[in-house]
Amino acid sequence: MLEDFLRPLTETEIFEWEVVVSDWVFLLSLLYLCFEVVRSAMRRKLNWTVAGDAATSFVTFAFFVAVTLVLLGGFYLTAYYVLQPYALFEIESTWLTIGLCILLADFAYYWEHRMSHRVGIVWATHSVHHSSPYFNISVAYRFGVMDALWPLLFHMPMVLIGFEPVVVLFSSAMVQAYQTFLHTDTIGKLPRPVEAVFNTPSHHRVHHGSNPYYLDKNYGGVFIVWDRLFGTFAEEREKVAFGLVKPLRSINPVVVSFHGFYRLGKDLWAAEGVLGKLRAALAPPGEGAQGRGKDPVSFPAE
């Protein structure tokens, strides 16, 4: 058994495992979505808006995949392989070292995710993920078109430590895959030891809440311990109001995908001078020139 964990893995093997896991997660998430749809129908909460919102999530995912594969995929790999000769160590790819890399990728994800909520230009794309007023597994596939760009900054240190680029990509994909099944309101709280260590549907509902008590909380991917350590943890106590503080009242996938940039553009236009525009671009949501995050807004495309 130990020999299996220490056996060197080829890039092809790691890539094949990533494909298998991703395919199974996608299939199981579709099956679970069917369960959620039936459940909503039985509770008379299913309507065309809910169905359209779920469909929009998958359309935004298609936009995200297209941009990632066409524009960012080669950029990622090039950046990783350019950095690799400068790595501090040469870490052999085994299941044991992959497990360590997943732990580091989850730690990096916490900080990347925290930045995406606190820097306006990054929030412009990440806000897509938080734009749904509903919470079912389709929301796990609701991505902004540029969501794959910013994680590069947090993944590069793992390449510089000495992990193979394919291992870094695999590890970050596993962190994302785990979170797929956190996007549901059909699962209550899990046993306390699980809730204490791992991110759970309950913890992630808090993260998607627009309640004042829940804002900017529970950034973790696999482990919730990072939030407990760095002061961003909140328990699920009150009913969660899902969606943005400044609601997005549209299921148009184009509006959903680009509303954040529209709002940011209004802030940049209103800001005075170069420094003012820079501050507007970097300001957290709700602190830009137009006060993003305070009041509902309507878009010309709606």
Mind explaining what this structure looks like?
By secondary structure, this protein is mostly helical. The protein has a domain at 2-187. 59% of the residues lie in helices and 0% in strands. It is built from 12 helices and no strands. Helix 11 (253-270) runs antiparallel to helix 12 (273-282). The protein is globular, with a radius of gyration of 20 Å.
Summarize the structure.
This protein has 302 residues and is an all-alpha fold. Helices cover 59% and strands 0% of the residues. The chain has helices at residues 2-6, 11-42, 48-83, 95-118, 120-126, 151-161, 165-180, 192-197, 201-207, 225-230, 253-270, 273-282.
Please write out the topology.
Layout: H1 2-6, H2 11-42, H3 48-83, H4 95-118, H5 120-126, H6 151-161, H7 165-180, H8 192-197, H9 201-207, H10 225-230, H11 253-270, H12 273-282
Helix pairs in contact: 2-7, 3-6, 3-11, 4-5, 4-6, 4-7, 5-11, 11-12
Average of per-residue pLDDT values: 89
Q: Which residues sit in consecutive blocks of at least 5 with pLDDT less than 50?
A: 288-302
Question: How much of the residues is beta strand, in percent?
Answer: under 5%
What's the shape? globular
From the alpha carbons, calculate the radius of gyration and give it in angstroms: 20 Å
CA-CA gap between termini: 58 Å
